[in-house]
Task: inverse folding
C-alpha cells in the first residue's frame, strides 16, 4: 500500500493532495465520532426539549457564520491556490479577507443584539444566543481557506481536533444536570475561539504572513469576487439551517429535537465525502485550467466510485435505522427513525452536487449558474418547508429537505453539462 502511494505521489502537488486527503479523513472521522459521544449524553442529561432548543439556537447563529464566511472558503481558497508562490499577493489576500470578515462579524453581532432584545420569542433566552455567537468569532479567526489554498490541511485537522476534544471533555466534566444547559454554548464557543487564535499564530509564525491594511479598492475587489458564492452559500443556509428555525417557530423544541437528532446523523454521513471534495477543490482549480477535459474525466471517475460506496452505506443505514437511533440516543428518540430514513438520499445528492457545482461550475468561473440553481432551491425550500412543517411537523421538514436537494443535484448537472460535453 505504501509503495503504491509513493508511486502515485510523484509530484509535489499530488503529495499535497494525498496529505490533504488523509488530514481531512482524520478530521471527518473525529467529526463523526465525537458527536456520537456527546449528543446521546446531552439528550439524557438535558432531555429532548432542551436538546432541541440548543439545536435551534445553533441553527439561528449559523446564519451569521455564513455571512462572515462570505464564500471565502471557496473564493479565497481558489485565490490562495493560484498565487501560493507570490508572498506579496498572499499577504494581500489574507489581509483583505480577514478585514472583511471582522467587519462582517461586528455588523452581525450588532444585528443579533438588536434582534434578540426586540423579539420576545428570542428575548426569553437571550443569553444562549449571545453565548453561541462565540462560534462565529472563532470561525472568523480561523483562516481555513488559507490552509486549504496552500494545501496544508494538517493544521486545520490538528486544531479542529484540539477544539472539539476540549468541548467534548468539558461537556462531560461540567454539564451534569438540565440547569447546566447554558454551559453547552459557552464550552463550544471557547473551543472555537482557542483554535482560531492558535491558527492565526501558525499563519504568522510558520508562513511568515503579516497583516497589512488594504486600500478600499482592494477590499471592494474581494467583496465583489465573493458576492455570487456568498449569495449561493447563504441560500444553502436557507434550506439547511432554516429548516430547523422554521420547524422551531411553527412547532416546539421537542419536534426540533427529533428532527435534529436524525439530521445530525445525516450530516455526519454527508461529511464522509469532505476529505475527497475538500482536498480536490484547490487541486482542481489548477488542473481544470491546465487540461479541463482530463480533469473532468478524473471527476467522473471519482463520482462513479463515490456514488457506489454511498449507495451501499446508505442502504445499510436505512435497514438498521432503528438500531442506530437507539444505540446513539436511546429509545427516547425512536420518532427520529422515519426522519432519518427520509433524509438518507441527501448525503449522496450533496456529494454529486459538489462534483458538478463546486468542482466544475466554480472552478470554471460560472458562479452565476451556480447561484441561480441554489437561489431557486432556497426559495422552493422556504415555501415547502413552511407548508410541510406546519402540516406534518418534523416529518414534513425532512421531506422538504429531500425534495430541494434532489432539485439542486439535477440543476447543477444540467448547467455543468451545458459547458462540458464530455460529461
Result:
Amino acid at each position: 500500500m505504501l509503495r503504491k502511494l509513493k508511486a502515485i505521489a510523484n509530484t509535489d502537488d499530488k503529495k499535497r493532495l494525498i496529505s490533504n486527503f488523509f488530514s481531512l479523513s482524520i478530521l471527518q472521522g473525529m467529526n463523526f465520532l465525537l458527536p456520537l459521544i456527546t449528543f446521546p449524553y446531552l439528550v439524557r442529561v438535558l432531555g429532548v426539549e432542551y436538546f432541541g432548543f440548543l439545536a435551534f439556537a445553533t441553527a439561528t447563529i449559523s446564519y451569521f457564520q455564513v455571512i462572515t464566511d462570505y464564500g471565502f472558503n471557496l473564493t479565497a481558497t481558489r485565490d490562495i491556490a493560484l498565487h501560493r508562490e507570490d508572498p506579496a499577493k498572499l499577504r494581500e489576500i489574507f489581509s483583505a479577507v480577514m478585514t472583511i470578515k471582522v467587519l462582517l462579524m461586528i455588523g452581525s453581532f450588532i444585528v443579533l443584539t438588536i434582534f434578540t432584545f426586540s423579539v420576545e420569542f428570542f428575548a426569553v433566552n437571550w443569553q444562549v444566543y449571545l453565548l453561541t455567537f462565540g462560534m462565529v468569532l472563532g470561525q472568523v479567526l480561523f483562516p481555513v481557506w488559507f490552509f486549504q489554498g496552500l494545501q496544508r490541511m494538517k493544521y486545520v485537522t490538528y486544531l479542529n481536533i484540539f477544539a472539539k476534544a476540549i468541548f467534548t471533555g468539558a461537556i462531560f466534566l461540567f454539564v451534569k444536570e438540565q440547569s447546566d444547559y447554558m454551559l453547552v454554548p459557552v464550552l463550544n464557543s471557547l473551543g472555537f475561539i482557542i483554535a482560531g487564535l492558535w491558527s492565526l499564530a501558525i499563519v504568522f509564525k510558520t508562513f511568515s504572513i503579516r497583516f497589512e491594511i488594504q486600500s478600499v479598492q482592494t477590499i471592494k475587489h474581494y467583496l465583489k469576487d465573493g458576492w455570487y458564492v456568498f449569495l449561493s452559500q447563504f441560500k444553502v443556509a436557507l434550506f439547511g439551517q432554516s429548516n430547523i428555525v422554521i420547524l422551531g417557530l411553527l412547532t416546539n423544541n421537542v419536534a426540533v429535537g427529533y428532527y435534529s437528532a436524525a439530521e445530525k446523523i445525516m450530516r455526519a454521513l454527508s461529511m464522509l465525502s469532505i476529505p475527497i471534495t475538500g482536498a480536490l477543490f484547490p487541486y482542481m482549480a489548477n488542473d481544470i485550467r491546465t487540461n479541463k477535459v482530463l480533469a473532468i474525466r478524473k471527476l467522473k471517475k471519482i463520482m462513479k466510485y463515490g456514488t457506489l460506496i454511498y449507495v451501499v452505506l446508505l442502504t445499510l443505514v436505512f435497514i438498521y435505522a432503528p438500531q442506530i437511533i437507539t444505540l446513539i440516543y436511546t429509545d427516547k428518540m425512536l420518532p427520529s427513525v422515519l426522519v432519518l430514513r427520509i433524509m438518507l438520499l441527501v448525503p449522496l445528492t450533496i456529494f454529486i452536487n459538489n462534483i458538478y457545482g463546486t468542482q466544475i461550475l466554480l472552478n470554471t468561473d460560472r458562479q452565476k449558474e451556480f447561484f441561480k440553481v441554489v437561489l431557486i432551491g432556497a426559495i422552493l425550500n422556504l415555501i415547502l418547508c413552511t407548508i410541510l412543517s406546519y402540516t406534518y411537523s418534523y416529518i414534513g421538514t425532512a421531506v422538504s429537505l429531500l425534495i430541494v436537494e434532489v432539485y439542486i443535484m439535477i440543476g447543477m448537472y444540467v448547467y455543468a453539462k451545458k459547458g462540458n460535453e464530455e460529461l
About this structure: Residues 4-8 have pLDDT under 50 and may be disordered. The CA atoms of residues 349 and 406 lie 6 Å apart. The first helix runs from residue 2 to 8. The chain is about 85% helix and 0% strand.
